[in-house]
Design brief:
The two termini are 33 Å apart. It is elongated and about 65 Å long. The chain has helices at 4-37, 39-53, 57-87. Helix 2 crosses helix 3. It is mainly α.
Length: 88
């Protein structure tokens, strides 16, 4: 059987997770709308940048995705190091 403090903690964690999901969904919708509104500009930027670099648009897109993934991994690593520093 759950104790009252344990139940309250689980309820608060569940509530925080729901709020986080709701905020993430709102952000996703906002970003999607912005991308749809600026699709032509983004395609023009990709075309121009790929041309300047002398590569195809698909290779540029692959490089952008690889860079974003690398930044996400690096950022996660930095967050892990910071959380370890804070726990000491």
């Amino acid at each position: 059987m759950l104790s009252l403090p344990s139940f309250d903690n689980q309820r608060l964690i569940f509530h925080a997770a729901r709020q986080t999901l709701r905020k993430a969904e709102m952000a996703r919708v906002a970003v999607r709308e912005w991308l749809n509104e600026h699709d032509c500009e983004l395609e023009e930027w990709k075309r121009k940048t790929a041309s300047e670099l002398g590569i195809s648009i698909s290779i540029l897109e692959q490089k952008l995705l690889a860079s974003a993934q690398h930044q996400a991994v690096t950022s996660k690593g930095d967050d892990d190091v910071n959380s370890e520093d804070n726990s000491l």
